[in-house]
Amino acid sequence: MSIRPWVVVEAPDGRGLRRVTIGGETVGSAWSLRELRKMLDRLGYPDVDVEDPASVCWRGGDSSAWPARAWRRRATSVLMMLGLVASAVLNGMIGWPDASGALTFAQRITGALFVLSGLAQVAAAISVLDYWGRRQSKISGAIVLLGVLISLGTDSLLLLMWLEEREYTPYMLAFMPLWCWSLWAFLLLVREKSWKGVPQPKRFAAGVFVSALLTALSLAYSTMYQPAVAPMRFALKAEFGTARADRGRPFIQVPLKLSVENTGEVSVYVIINDFTVYGRTSKYSEQGNLVKERWKESFEEGETREEAERHVDQLEYTPISSGRFYRPGEVLGSGQEDARVHVFEIPKNVQYDLLRVDMQITYMRKDRGRIDVENFSKPHASWIKRSPYYCHPSVCGETLRYHGRVRHNNNLVNVTRKPRYVTAEWSPTRSPKYSISSSYDFKGRGAAGDPAEETREVDRFGASTVYASSEVSVAELLRSIPSP
Questions:
Q1: What is the pLDDT of residues 215-249, one digit of tens each?
Q2: Taking a C-beta distance cutoff of 8 angstroms, is the pair 266, 365 a contact?
Q3: Using the 8-state DSSP alphabet, how is residue 410 labeled?
Q4: Helix (H, G, I), strand (E, B) or coil at 116
Q5: Is the pTM value of this prediction over 0.85?
Q6: SS3 440
Q7: What's the rounded Cα separation, in Å, for the pair 462 and 364?
Q8: Element of type H or E holding 166
Q9: Total tally of structural domains belonging to the chain
Q10: 273 and 330, same structural domain?
Q11: How many whole angstroms separate alpha carbon 222 and alpha carbon 107?
């Protein structure tokens, strides 16, 4: 046997782990004297006297120098793994809805990046076992650091977005604690210089930077640029056709030709729509002095008068027929064109001098959000007392109400905001109404929150209304009726 001892136990490293060599060849590391004895027994040296200087050389401390704090190391590794797994689950929940169902390609890419970042964090959680273990892999520390950086970036972004509105959301219970955890984990890994051992640390750092930059650009494009670059255009037409006399009754049948075309580049949800035919009666004067004061009086009485004729005044419009072109929640695709003919009747001796049709469609852009169509398309009568949508007819009239959840296409916004709802009302005797807000009062007061919130949400979801109207002389309609 050589004079030099053949078993050498090196001094403890920063974690208390002691490297063991036999005959100049490293055979492993040990956290404790018990692990050292098991290692020697496994290698075929069960009878080695560890206290014999001729057999074992202790460097940096004798057989009692085992400074490893197993409970602290295990607690740190468990906490690190739990944080990474929780962050991976959160990233997956955020990214999957966009990756699988977003309308635009950019939003799908953003969702896919979140899903991939979640998978990277799962890999980092697995690497924790090696990094807080025997560190057999040189890059395990760098992988853990990458996972923590992803968590810190994601949670910081969620926190900043939440600060814009400061609304309660259940996701707060996840990303706020995770932000504190990721900050602690990042400082711990920086202090330990976990990137040591990476063969090319500069390339690793460059890859992390480029990945973060691409993610930031993708988010900016999907949330700010893309929804604004596609303008909305519609072609609405409402025209009266050739009237026909009813053979059995003293009525005139008037066909109304309606058409709608989405000439824009984005599909839309129809929130509410309406067309109403009015019959106009008026007072005539040959002297032509009716308009001088009446239009000012009507304004003072609260009427909206943007028409004035010298020989015609005291205009009154009586609803004759009303209906809808689409059901609430229907999708009107880009380039889609629909037409309909609606026939209504008026008496032959009617006193109307003009017929007028007003048509309107209120829509929401599909690239801004998604409507829960299954619930929103169901009508609820406001006059049924046992219904949660009940409102006294003296306050709300008798209307059909539609109510459903609306979600942003960017799921990052959904997890940092309270739920939003779209509400619409339709009645043949009233103009349609709609709102988008976080809450709604069905007792007649409309949106229950700040009116500014409703305006802001309508703009965010790209909701708007387009109109079309047409008029025809009753005398012209009667002239077009063929003689019997």
A1: 565 555 555 544 555 678 999 999 999 888 888 88
A2: yes
A3: S
A4: helix
A5: no
A6: strand
A7: 6
A8: none
A9: 4
A10: yes
A11: 5
